Amino acid sequence: MSSFSLAVRDSSTMLRRNLLHARRYPSLTLNLLLTPVMLLLLFVYIFGDTMSGGAGRSAYIAYIVPGILLMTIGSTVVGTAVSVATDMNEGIIARFRTMAIHRGSVLFGHVVGSVLQAVISVVLVGAVGVAMGFRSTDATVVEWLAAFGLLVLFALAVTWIAVGMGMGSPNAEAASNNAMPLILLPLISSAFVPLHSMPGWFQPIAQYQPFTPAIETLRGLLLGTEIGDNWWIALAWCLGLSVLGHRWSKAQFDRDPK
């Protein structure tokens, strides 16, 4: 077999391994998935009228769903960091290093498996949003495809970061704590309120982070609002985080065990 065929075979095996783990132990994914769902229910049904500024819950759910979808990705990949840290702590990664398999396949299995789980989680949370009244009637087929592509690319970017966090953590608990910013950053973005409604000193904190341009781009694609420069800033964040996370993860994987 050629080296490419071996890489594909080993990567498929590792992907199947991680999907089987997710299926056998779904509690972690379900617990992380509950966070965006509970926030969606809380902000729409409890705070919706107040947060909408009088426009009503239907207007606010249209505003909040794009941010919740990006938060869902951030929540889901926390499980990836925990899974990678568990593999590192139990010694299976060290065992994989000694086996005659393609080295990149181990990371590939975690990353692709996590992206698939993130996409499924986004679909489930999106279905909850639709059941609550979210509608995107103005989006064209091209805009829907662009929105889906953005979600996948963003999931890929934060997954690589989560893999790096998992490999650099001494145990699963530390990995969960290290990956917590992936859940907290959407809370200080434009997911729940517009940037101009925030205090002036806080606006740069909310603006110059990866979630805000991605949320504004997704919101513009689904609702027809102004996107401006957010689309290329979001893409730059996704590509930059993907490269950084890949290099970080690979460097830790290639490092000789202590």
From TrEMBL:
It is a multi-pass membrane protein. The chain crosses the membrane at residues 25-48, 60-85, 106-132, 144-167, 179-198, 231-249. GO terms for cellular component: ATP-binding cassette (ABC) transporter complex. Pfam families: ABC2_membrane. Residues 27-256 form the ABC transmembrane type-2 domain. Its main location: membrane. Keywords: Antibiotic resistance, Cell membrane, Membrane, Transmembrane, Transmembrane helix, Transport. It comes from the Bacteria. One of its GO terms (biological process) is response to antibiotic. It is found in: Cell membrane; Membrane. One of its GO terms (molecular function) is ABC-type transporter activity. PANTHER family: NODULATION PROTEIN J. This is Transport permease protein. It comes from Streptomyces triticiradicis.
